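Please check these two lines:
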Amino acid sequence: MSGKPWQMWSRSDNRALEAVLGLALLLVGLSGVLLPILRVTGPLPPAHTREVELDDVTRSPAVIASGGASLRGTRTGELAFAHPDLTERLLLVLPGVTRALLLLVILELLRRMVRSLRDGDVFIAQNTRRLGVIAVAVLVLATLIPLVDTVTTTILVSGTQLSSKVPIAYELSGPYVLLALLLAAAAEAFRQGARLRADTEGLV
């Protein structure tokens, strides 16, 4: 069997993958962005909990309450607000919404890359840029999202007795960093492939 691998990609395969990515875009948009926003603005029951890490000193099975907030857990704690105000609801959903928005960017760029297969060539300049943006988005997932989670948790417990129970912790996501580096390498491979294709076409 001859031909380039991407040229063997059938139209039905292309449509199926586009449909899967389109469905993923819809689900992430609904569950990761729309529903949390509705929980902040009021039509849906408000978000009122946040999972937090507890250190060895503060681990306790008892419920610790301070004002309208409470903390329970022995290893991973649950920070809960009985009646969160607008600011607290926004802080609770902000990390998840930020993560979902980045995922939407990644999925949309992947969908556009799949669409480019219709023309029978994956090594085009647009896909090089798309892979580069995806690599940056994944790196932001690894670095910014943990920071947003740490900052919002710190603000939520600030000024309460719980602030001494919840340690300030920031940890990079190693797998995401590795994935970002691999995607950056793939973007460079695409760039070289696009250049070689252009050079080859120039010789014909």
Residues 5-45+85-203 form one domain. Residues 66 and 102 are 34 Å apart (CA to CA). Residues 125-157 form the longest helix (33 residues). The first strand starts at residue 49 and ends at 53.
